[in-house]
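re: ur question from earlier - yeah i can do the single chain one, its not a big deal. heres the input i used so u can compare w yours
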Amino acid sequence: MDLWPYRWDHLLRYRYIEIISLWEGRLTTGHLTRCFGIGRQQASKDINFYLREIAPGNISYDKFLKGYRPSQEFQPRVTRGTADEYLHLMTRDEQLMGVFEALPLATANVEQLTPLGRDVSPSILRPMIQAARAQKRLEVDYVSLQNPDREGRIIVPHTLVFTGCRWHVRAWCEKNRSFRDFVLSRFRGEADMLDASPFGEEQDSDWQQRIELVIIPDPRLSSAQQEVIAHDYNMSNGELRLATRATLVQYQLQLLQLDPAQQQDNPLAQQVVLQNREALSPWLFG
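and the output i got, formated as tokens:
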């Protein structure tokens, strides 16, 4: 497909139609009018277009429900059809309502714990993004636990990374002559844009290298318990294979609450283990 077929705002509404109908079992024009601030006529037009052009037969009107329900032959067309899409949609709405209390978004029966926010100044983040897009050098002040006093650095950022707990930037460091991760909340003052650099994303070999983590249920668990864990993680043949960048291996393990250097005494505490630790050892911390 050479041209993107839908406007972005329309695509968001088609995705919303698919997610709500699949996971709540009932979609009305009211869902769309409340979420997107559109009129009932436009909402009906969106639903009809979805039915006619995107996914014929996916949903049908049920006069008893007074809304559209998913058919037995439902096939996702503009979503992946995963529960995470619905749950993230609900938590996103809850976050918006925390700021704009008058928003009429339906987020009942959903509660979310969020990571603590870390302070990042616009005077740091704006030039960081600009430098990453233009592959330019950036003069910054940085602090760390090893060196809590401000230290001037010249870096060449290429990617902002969210690890599930915090944001950092992957960047070339002229002082260390290597690519490193810098926590965004540890920059101080203002960043000064300099000239272009030859060190960008393409030169970051650990970033470019793709690695596969193999996760399995803890073998110390009973067969029945391992089956439960395998289902929890949607494992295939008793293992979960996660593809990631080499430089993100440790963060992925932290997100899974896996410490490859130390095994929990109680297998119920960790539940899963890393099967291919030796293959990943070059990219593990410490």
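The first strand starts at residue 59 and ends at 62. not sure if urs matches, ping me
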